[in-house]
Amino acid sequence: MSKRVAYGLALALLLLASSGCLAPRPFDEKAWRQRVAAENPADLYAPHRAPDGSFFNPWLPQSHSAWDVLVWYFSRNSLEGQGGEPAPGPVEANDGSYLADPGQPASLTWVGHATYALQWSGQVVVTDPFFSRRAAVVRRLNPPAFGPERISGGAVVVISHNHYDHLDADSVAALGDRVTFLVPLGLGRLVREMGAARVRELDWWQEVEIDGTRFTCLPVQHWSRRWGQGYNQSLWCGWLMERNGLKVLYGGDSGYFAGFKEIGRRWPGIDVALLGAGAYLPRWFMHYAHMDMDELIQAHRDLGSRQLIPTQWGTLKLGDEPAGWPAVELRRRIAGDPGLAREVLLMPVGGRLLLP
Questions:
Q1: Domain for residue 42, yes or no?
Q2: Mean pLDDT over all residues of the chain?
Q3: In this structure, what are the phi and psi dihedrals at residue 276, rounded to the nearest 5 degrees?
Q4: Does residue 25 form part of some domain?
Q5: Could you list the residue range(s) of the whole structural domain that residue 281 is in?
Q6: Does residue 275 contact residue 256 with C-beta atoms inside 8 Å?
Q7: Taking burial as the number of CB atoms within 10 A of a residue's CB, which of 197, 203, 289, 338 is the most buried?
């Protein structure tokens, strides 16, 4: 970067910081939905790695720039004037001791944020383990239900992508050689450097069976970057887990896209969909990589899932909205559509759902 450019950026930042009055950019929700509706499902199966080794979403590449991050940071909050900040998500006491008992019934436990412990037929599966007090610089607002010591040896851990709230180095180190890690392409080396011993990389649509459970790596609409890994140098994904006729979908992080309908078509009868419900405001900045609550419900319907469990709310403030705001918005929608009350489950951290 030349000195002239550096000085220009510094001056721009100083002006923005001193003013703090940038209005949130407008966002055309209708035009965005039209772009999604125009996506070709065949592109979900298209090559998604560039000649330089980076990954991309072939149906709708992302177009944000570093400048957009700065504009968002120095803009007024898009929820300004819409009421007080709701409390973080509720917490229920749960020491997770039952995870060590292979005779326990099938169940799903919310450990916190995007971390769930799925227990079935003696096997434990953990999604994106995050037990630390912070995700990079963002402090968690409530503690995890229990720590990594409750995850028994032989468990399977699925990782969706490399962002700090989904790939936590201390949690990987704590689980170390006791578990098997399933990760998307490009993450194997980093996860091993964090202390994992058994790691398998999968591409979209690839599957593997471990101890009677079939794991399928699925496309989602997101991106990747963290310290030590450049922009989109590793892939992002969701995971479908199937065992004894039960299907649980973990969506990781994703914006709304045609993939939900395609997944629902290929795997009808999904029992539980764990879909991200946080960091969706401001819409002009977040719409590509995260769903608002209308899109979340539509994704659930596209999938044909019997139950929707929103994830990633109540623990970290990552967007304009407070951590507990997604629950506020979802309860409003449920009040206007009582049928949703039978389909959407807002769990407390530490909550345990028995599966059929």
A1: no
A2: 92
A3: -65, 135
A4: no
A5: 97-354
A6: no
A7: 289
